[in-house]
Design brief:
- The chain is an alpha/beta fold and 335 residues long.
- It has a domain of 181 residues: 3-Layer(aba) Sandwich (Rossmann fold), CATH 3.40.50.720.
- It has 12 helices and 14 strands.
- Helix 1 crosses helix 6, helix 3 packs parallel to helix 4 and helix 7 packs across helix 11.
- The chain is globular.
- It starts with a strand and ends with a strand.
Length: 335
C-alpha cells in the first residue's frame, strides 16, 4: 500500500506513520521541510508548498501515484479544490483530517455527539473545515476518488503539548508542580475528551483502503469522557501532586486577557463529548488504549525534555487574574 501524507510532521501524523509502517505501507510525506522531524529511514520526503497551487498540482500530475492520500493540513476550501485537482483520478482513496469543531457547541439529548449531529460551527476554523468536507464529498460523488473524513477532537502526545482549560501552552502545569492554584472556567464540570496521538493515528492508518469507510465521516476520540476536574486531577497525578482549582466564569477569565484565552473563548468553555462507536464498528483496529494519566506523564516529560516547559514565575498577568479571583471570594478547591 502506497500512502502519501500531506503534512506529516504534526502530532497526529506521528501516530499515523507509526501504524502505517506497522501495516507494511510505503509512506511518503509532502511538506515544506521546515520542521525538524526524525523520520524513519523508510519514509520518503517530498518538499514543496501546498499553497503554491500550480506547483503542488504539477508535482503530482506526472509524478508518483498513491493508493491513499491523507491530507493533514487542508484548512481552506481553496486548498481542498487544489487537492481535488491534484489527486482526482490519481488515487483510490483520499482521507481528509477534519475536526469535531464542525459540530459547533450545541449538546444533543444523549450528550455525546455522533456523526449525524448537525454541523453548525461557531468559529471560522470550523466553518472552513465544513466547506472542505463538502468539497471532498462532492468529489467522491463525482467519482474523483473515494473519500473518508476523520474528525479528531483534542489530541496530545510527545512532540506536542498538553492543553489546560484556558490555553494551548499553559502555565498551569508548572503552577501545579509548584503547589500553586490554577484557574478553571465555570464549576469545572464541563465535559471533555483527550485522545493520545498514537490512538488517534490508528483510525487514519487502518481506514486506509478499508472500503467500509468510503464516503463516510468518523469521530476519532477515546471513549472516556471526563470533567475538567477529572482532567486536572489526572494531569496533576502525572506530575506527582494534587491540583487546586479556582473557579471563575469563562467570560470573566476571557475578559481579562482575550488575546491569550482564545481557546477558552471558542472551544473549552463548551462541552466537548463525542462518540466514536461508528469508527470502532467500521475500523475494528481503532481502539484507544493509552490512559490519560499515563499519556499526560509521557507528554509533559517530553515537553520538559524539549525545553518547551512554560514556567509560571514570570507570568504576572496570570497571577494578577488569579489574585483578583481570590479577592472576589473564590476559594481553591482540590480537583
Amino acid at each position: 500500500m502506497r500512502v502519501l501524507l500531506i503534512g506529516g510532521t504534526g502530532l497526529i501524523s506521528q501516530g499515523i506513520v507509526t501504524h502505517l509502517l506497522a501495516r507494511g505501507a510505503e509512506v511518503t510525506m509532502f511538506n515544506r521541510g521546515q520542521r525538524e522531524n526524525a523520520l524513519p529511514a523508510s519514509v520518503r520526503q517530498l518538499t514543496g508548498d501546498r499553497n503554491d497551487f500550480d506547483a503542488f498540482e504539477r508535482a503530482f500530475a506526472d509524478g508518483p501515484r498513491f493508493d491513499v492520500v491523507i491530507d493533514m493540513i487542508c484548512f481552506k476550501p481553496e486548498q481542498a479544490q487544489s487537492a481535488i485537482r491534484a489527486f482526482g483520478g490519481r488515487c483510490e482513496q483520499f482521507i481528509f483530517c477534519s475536526t469535531v469543531c464542525t459540530y459547533g457547541v450545541k449538546v444533543p439529548p444523549g450528550v455525546l455527539v455522533d456523526e449525524a449531529f448537525p454541523q453548525e460551527p461557531i468559529s471560522g476554523y470550523g466553518r472552513d473545515k465544513v466547506a472542505c468536507e463538502r468539497a471532498f464529498l462532492d468529489a467522491h460523488e463525482r467519482g474523483a476518488f473515494k473519500v473518508t473524513i476523520v474528525r479528531p477532537s483534542s489530541t496530545y502526545g510527545p512532540g506536542g503539548g498538553l492543553i489546560d482549560n484556558l490555553e494551548f501552552n499553559p502555565v498551569a502545569w508548572d503552577r501545579i508542580e509548584r503547589g500553586l492554584p490554577v484557574l478553571c472556567a465555570g464549576d469545572g464540570l464541563g465535559l471533555w475528551q483527550s485522545t493520545h496521538r498514537d490512538d488517534c493515528g490508528k483510525l487514519f492508518a487502518y481506514a486506509a483502503l478499508n472500503a467500509r469507510t468510503y464516503g463516510q465521516a468518523y469521530n476519532a476520540t477515546r471513549d472516556e469522557v471526563f470533567t475538567w476536574r477529572d482532567y486536572y486531577r489526572q494531569a496533576a497525578a502525572a506530575l506527582g501532586g494534587p491540583a487546586r482549582l479556582v473557579f471563575m466564569p469563562a467570560g470573566w477569565i476571557v475578559k481579562h486577557a482575550p488575546a491569550r484565552f482564545g481557546l477558552l473563548a471558542e472551544i473549552t468553555q463548551y462541552h466537548g463529548a463525542y462518540t466514536s462507536a461508528k469508527a470502532k464498528r467500521d475500523v475494528p483496529e481503532f481502539r484507544c488504549e493509552i490512559g490519560f494519566e499515563a499519556g499526560a506523564a509521557q507528554t509533559l516529560a517530553d515537553v520538559r525534555r524539549r525545553g518547551a516547559w512554560r514556567g509560571a514565575a514570570d507570568d504576572s498577568v496570570y497571577q494578577l487574574i488569579l489574585d483578583t479571583a481570590l479577592a472576589a471570594g473564590s476559594e481553591p478547591v482540590e480537583a
